[in-house]
Design brief:
Shape: globular
Strand order of the largest sheet: 7-6-5-4-3-2-1-8
Number of helices: 12
Number of strands: 18
Strand content: 15-25%
Largest sheet: 8 strands, parallel
Helix content: 25-40%
């Protein structure tokens, strides 16, 4: 609803008002938005060791003579749900240790070792949704120790089981002595509610999910994007180095055309969102459609840059439209929503540069989009470099683009002229 989107924006002021803000990473990791791949969107529960190593091989290999995804920054391959052996809604043994399905994953440590030999990091998944152990005791220390002993580099903690206290996870991971990237995907048993503001002030995890599960639909990505406004306070942004707000994995080229995919990817880049791929990297058809977008070095550089702020929404059009956003990898659920027909987002970059994204969200019509320098909070003259067409133009006072097609966008990097 309109009220839902308005409430998101109003709530942002409340989030930023809590005291005790700590701008530093709790463990020194994820100083740039994490980049990589995770299994859920492509394979759901159908994962095994050979499949994971095939993705490791694909991400670390050149693509048709072009740079490997690993060399572009996509550094981590993550297992999602489905690795566990489930007996009577339980996947921990009598000592509280997690039980791996050895038919699917005969040797987790060998798998991570092979990934590391190719320069690829590996992420695990805990507090699982399948075989969710509802009502059972949590096993924070056992799960953290297993993650460290298998030599994983990070762990995604979901919200379905009993081990949903993210502070306990932070303590348990620290106690292993191994630094690991911690993804908060469901604190407080409220997997899709915005994370608790107080917990974000002194953030003891590295990225945190802020939205519903993304679906392979353009409007799902735009719906999730709106939640970024909660974490973009201009003075004390709750999304920051070592503690990134995360509107879920990428669905680039998954039931989206080229323009939609560019808009989706650009939106994640201009808001410093983690860039997690979710398609089968060994599928040549999917790779051919997706690689030209996810390999755009200018877009990635904007995502990874830090000049004190993760990026923010600067303009909503007064005109709105009604649409439907799907949720989840299957897209079987969804929400009726009202959105502005156009938005403008921006992110400051080092050396006085800025990224500006002008988006036409409208399902039906083309729109002209214009934003003044005063709205952007900038002054002077700039060269506007188009991230997708590589065209350059001079801009002074206002940025205006004409007839932006439905679901399309224009992504500029502004350099002082």
């Amino acid at each position: 609803s309109v009220m839902a989107v308005v409430a998101i924006i109003v709530f942002a002021a409340c989030l930023a008002s809590v005291h005790g803000y700590n701008p530093n990473s709790w463990n020194g990791l994820a100083m740039t938005p994490p980049m990589g791949w995770r299994s859920w969107n492509a394979f759901l529960l159908n994962v095994d060791q050979d499949l994971m190593l095939a993705q490791v091989n694909a991400i670390s290999s050149e693509y048709k003579g072009q740079p490997s995804l690993l060399s572009l920054g996509y550094a981590t391959v993550g297992i999602d749900d489905g690795w566990q052996y489930c007996v009577n809604h339980n996947f921990h043994d009598a000592n509280g240790n997690p039980i791996v399905n050895k038919t699917r994953f005969p040797d987790m440590a060998a798998m991570t070792a092979e990934a590391h030999s190719k320069g690829v990091k590996m992420g695990w998944y805990q507090n699982n949704c399948w075989c969710g152990e509802h009502g059972k005791p949590p096993h924070y220390a056992n799960d953290a120790n297993a993650t460290a002993n298998f030599n994983f580099d990070g762990v995604k903690v979901d919200g379905c089981g009993p081990a949903h206290n993210i502070s306990m996870w932070s303590d348990a991971i620290e106690a292993t002595g191994k630094k690991m990237v911690l993804e908060n995907c469901g604190d407080n048993h409220e997997t899709w509610s915005p994370p608790d503001a107080a917990g974000l002030q002194d953030c003891r995890f590295n990225l945190y999910r802020i939205s519903s599960d993304i679906a392979p639909q353009f409007m799902s990505s735009m719906y999730n994007l709106q939640y970024q406004t909660l974490y973009q306070d201009i003075n004390q942004p709750l999304s920051r180095q070592g503690c990134w707000s995360y509107p879920d994995m990428l669905e680039v080229a998954n039931n989206m055309n080229v323009e939609e995919s560019r808009t989706h990817f650009s939106a994640w880049c201009v808001t410093s969102a983690p860039l997690t791929l979710g398609f089968d990297l060994t599928n040549e058809t999917r790779m051919a459609a997706t690689y030209p977008i996810i390999s755009n070095k200018e877009a990635i550089a904007i995502n990874q840059a830090w000049a004190g702020h993760p990026g923010r929404l600067v303009q909503n059009s007064s005109e709105t439209f009604n649409t439907f956003a799907k949720h989840g990898a299957s897209g079987r659920s969804g929400t009726n929503i009202t959105l502005p027909v156009t938005q403008v987002w921006m992110k400051p970059l080092p050396q006085g540069e800025y990224a500006v994204l002008l988006v036409n969200l409208d399902d039906n019509a083309s729109h002209d989009i214009s934003v003044s320098f005063s709205e952007l909070g900038i002054s002077g003259s700039f060269t506007a470099f188009d991230v997708w067409t590589n065209d350059s133009s001079k801009v002074d006072g206002t940025i205006s683009v004409s007839s932006v097609a439905s679901h399309a966008s224009v992504f500029y990097k502004l350099t002082p002229a």
